[in-house]
Amino acid sequence: MRYLIAIYIILGLCEKNFAQSSLINFTLNPIALLDIESSSGTNVSFTFTAPNEAGSSMQVPANNNNNRINITSAVTPGSTRRVDVQMLGSLPSGTRLRLQTTGPTASAVGNVGAVSNGNLYLSSSPQTIINNVGGGHTTNGVNRGFRLDYSMEIQDYSQLRASNQTVQILFTLADN
């Protein structure tokens, strides 16, 4: 009987002394990463081909759809992001550059947004091509994310002049 009382007192004391707690702090800072991926380099070249017969039109260069946009994003609660595109520099007179955006690929995880303007002519003014990017990632790689399909067009034959020009296409992941 004495042993039972002693065990009971020891167990009662032990229960009070073994209850403790710890605080665990979690921090996830906002993340906004964007890059352009391609298996053949991210620079694009277009060369118009002269016709073989007088009176025929020039051959417009083939489209280039080798580039992809990869995104990683973590946003603050209640906010989203967008991807804007703009052209820095001038195209040869009489031509224009079209950008068609598609995707994302099925490998995307979370909310990487959706194409909002998938077919536009590039200009010096920023234009949104992907909107409502939240928390997620497209996965990394040359066949992941959003596909970029560039094509050149002749807009006005009367303005065409022989030239060799370079423009820069700027993509920006920005808060809405």
Describe this structure in words.
The protein has 176 residues and is mainly beta. The protein has one domain. The protein has one helix and eleven strands; from the N terminus they run H-E-E-E-E-E-E-E-E-E-E-E. The strands form two sheets. Strands 1, 2, 4, 5, 7, 9 and 10 form a seven-stranded antiparallel β-sheet that branches. A four-stranded antiparallel β-sheet has the order 6-8-3-11, with no helix packed on it. It is elongated. The model has no long low-confidence stretch (mean pLDDT 91).
Features:
7-stranded antiparallel β-sheet; mainly beta; 9% helix; 176 residues
Topology, element by element:
Layout: H1 2-17, E1 31-37, E2 64-74, E3 81-88, E4 95-102, E5 109-110, E6 114-115, E7 119-121, E8 127-133, E9 136-137, E10 146-154, E11 168-175
Antiparallel strand pairs: 1-2, 2-9, 2-10, 3-8, 3-11, 4-7, 4-10, 5-9, 6-8
Unreliable runs: none
Query: Which sheet architecture does the biggest sheet show?
Result: 7 strands, antiparallel
- The helix content, as a percent range, equals under 10%
Report Rg: 29 Å
Count of individual beta strands: 11
Strand content: 35-45%
User: How many helix segments?
Assistant: 1
Number of domains: 1
Distance between the terminal alpha carbons, to the nearest Å? 75 Å
